[in-house]
Amino acid sequence: MLSFYDGFFLNLCVLIASLFVYEELVKKNSFEIQTIRITIINGLLGGLLAAILMHFNIETSANALIDLRIIPFMLVILYGNWLSTSITAALIISIRFMMGVHIYSAINIIFILASWMIFCYCFKKIKNRWISIIVMLTLSNTVYTVLTAILSAGKGLNISLIATYWISCILGGLIAVYMMDYLNETKIAFKRNSKYAFTDSMTGLNNVRSFNLAFNKAKSKLEKSNESISIMILDIDHFKQVNDTYGHLEGNLVLKKVAAILKMSQDPEDIISRNGGEEFSVLLNNCSHNEAYEKADALRKIMENLFFIMTVCQIKCITQDEIKETHDVLV
């Protein structure tokens, strides 16, 4: 049997480790977009974590046992939906009955359902997140205190037990939510940085790193097959004059407009990139040399009709033979 401090520390370790494992399992998904599969996983994992915390219960100085099963339940309500919450609640209630059918099992049902209503109400009505969490845990602990007082009728309320439970739940709940937010923000930052590693942040096109990878892949594919591949290189004439005359904000608008036109005018399988500055490229798959020239000429006319003479695009086509003779591009 663990002492209070050992038990509380162990419960925190289990909570934090479980949150890291959870993030690893669903790292490709977002809290905002939850599929049925992820929803069910959330509910099952919430119930599993509650069961683990019930197993590693905390011994108090009053020779009584408490656990932090309510914290995983709160997390599922905060970050999940009604289905995942229902699954977690059902698991907590079922597991408690498996541990023994008696008055405490029935009281557990009341405690879970009352906490469910409290958490949902506070989550919707209180805008400040941390105040909402503190109010949630305070009201849930109040329910626990009332139920404990009812069970202890005639024996006297165990103040030490109640105080220990309040401290454990509030501290554990705040730490768990902080860790969950931290892990979620880290996941979002990682996804954003991963995207920008291969995407031009201004135009949303592939960047030079993506172009290099696609170019080398196309070269390797060309050496093994007879598939036609061409590249269009686009460069905006007098772009420096646009920046010097109208400012960089206007220059950025020109770049974004060119990128939008390229996205609309090219086939879905074509790889469009901003190679740096005012230079763009389009890797044309399954496109012969003559077809590439036709596309380039059509694109040039579109650009001429949309921009002043200072921003007319010059387009150069690289043939298949020239691709074969080009050395590997280094990242």
TrEMBL record:
Transmembrane segments: 7-23, 35-58, 70-95, 101-123, 130-151, 163-183
Cellular component, GO, one term: plasma membrane
Superkingdom field: Bacteria
Keywords of this entry: Membrane, Transmembrane, Transmembrane helix
GO molecular function, one term: diguanylate cyclase activity
UniProt xrefs under InterPro entries: Diguanylate_Cyclase, GGDEF_dom, Nucleotide_cyclase, Rev_trsase/Diguanyl_cyclase
One BP annotation, GO: cell adhesion involved in single-species biofilm formation
Domain GGDEF span(s) in chain numbering: 227-331
Record protein name field: Diguanylate cyclase
UniProt organism field: Carnobacterium alterfunditum
Taxonomic lineage: Bacteria, Bacillati, Bacillota, Bacilli, Lactobacillales
